[in-house]
Write a structure and sequence with these properties.
It is a single chain. The chain is an alpha+beta fold. Helix content is 32%, strand content 23%. It binds ligand PZK. The site of ligand PZK has 17 residues, from strand 1, strand 2, strand 3 and strand 7. Ligand PZK binds next to strand 1, strand 2, strand 3 and strand 7.
């Protein structure tokens, strides 16, 4: 590991803000979730212990939960299932790795919103519509929508994703020998079913799933496959149902604690962010663990233990 928490390897492909991608062989990739945390679009210099394991555990939970809705890219989670060249990294990978099928990724972010927040709220406030879907007038920030909406966006290499209409999605999915309209409808149908399933499960745990961003790809035979991390606090907005108060911005279940501290830290929101004090780190970690435990119904300690013995 380097000082920034990045694994060094000939197989390294690239890093996202908080996770890293490696090539394992011709048809498999390794996703590794770090303990890095971003806030206000900046990666903070202080890691949150176990954050990567919490998020990986949530992805694993949701892949299992949603396998009847859509096949997913997960192949294995045990470091022992990697080729022998990875053996020296088993301890660092355990609990935070997803060994995945290599897919042809769709060049879009697949977003579903059940509530008006973030970019969806901004677009509605400015235009009365989100991704070309006109919504009823008079909605407030944080309001629940009459029905969840599919709001795909571009995948920006840097900066923010741009919302696109369904017709633009069809154009972006066009490829020789493929019915892009049928594929786009399949993506929308799967996304809305995943959201409905997950939102109901979260509601049972006292958590509102405001929105979620999914990634999908195609297997060699053309099957639509769910990829990346799924329904984690880094890819979704989780709100505490007990604190829900529409008519303004909602507290983030996981990140509000760090945002509140940063707001008081006289930081101008430019890179690098400030180091976090120990009590703030432990408070944030506890929030991630609470999200894991409420959603999965399992203790996080049990997740760590099972992963240690998993072969
Ligand atoms: C893939 N990313 C995002 C960026 C990360 C992840 N199953 C797959 N097949 C092919 N490509 C990808 C996947 C997945 N998932 C995902 N980029 C490519 C990404 C940076 C770091 F960990």
């Amino acid at each position: 590991m380097t000082a920034t928490g990045t694994f060094t390897s000939a197989a390294f492909i690239r890093s996202g803000k908080v996770r890293d991608l490696y090539a394992v062989d011709a048809d498999r990739l390794l996703l590794v979730a770090s303990d890095r945390i971003s806030a206000y679009d900046v990666v903070l210099p202080t890691p949150i212990p176990d954050k990567g394991k919490v998020l990986t555990g949530l992805s694993r939970f949701w892949f299992a939960e949603t396998a009847r809705i859509v096949p997913n890219h997960l192949v294995a989670t045990d470091p022992g299932s990697l080729p022998p060249t990875w053996a020296g990294r088993a301890a660092e990978l355990r609990g935070r790795m997803l060994l995945c099928r290599r897919l042809q990724m769709l060049p879009v972010e697949v977003v579903v919103r059940g509530y008006l927040a973030g970019g969806g709220w901004k677009d509605y406030a400015a235009t009365g519509a989100v991704s070309g879907i006109r919504l009823e007038p008079g909605l407030r920030e944080g309001d629940r929508l009459a029905a969840p909406i599919f709001t795909p966006s571009t995948k920006a290499e840097s900066g923010h994703d741009e919302p696109i209409s369904f017709d633009t999605l069809v154009d972006l999915l066009a490829a020789p020998g493929r019915d892009a309209g049928e594929l786009a409808e399949g993506v929308r149908d799967v996304a809305l079913r995943l959201y409905a399933h997950a939102a109901a499960a979260c509601a049972g745990a006292g958590i509102l799933l405001a929105d979620t961003k999914l990634e999908m790809g195609l297997a060699g035979d053309g099957t639509l496959v769910l990829a990346d991390e799924v329904l984690t606090p880094d890819s979704s907005r989780f709100w505490d149902a007990a604190a829900y108060a529409p008519g303004g911005p909602q507290a983030s279940f996981d990140k509000q604690y760090v945002r509140d501290w940063l707001d008081r830290a006289a930081w101008d929101r430019t890179d690098p962010g400030p180091a976090l004090p120990e009590d703030v780190v432990s408070g944030i970690r506890a929030r991630y663990v609470e999200a894991f435990e409420r959603i999965t119904g399992a203790t996080f300690a049990r997740y760590l233990e099972e992963d240690v013995i998993a072969r």
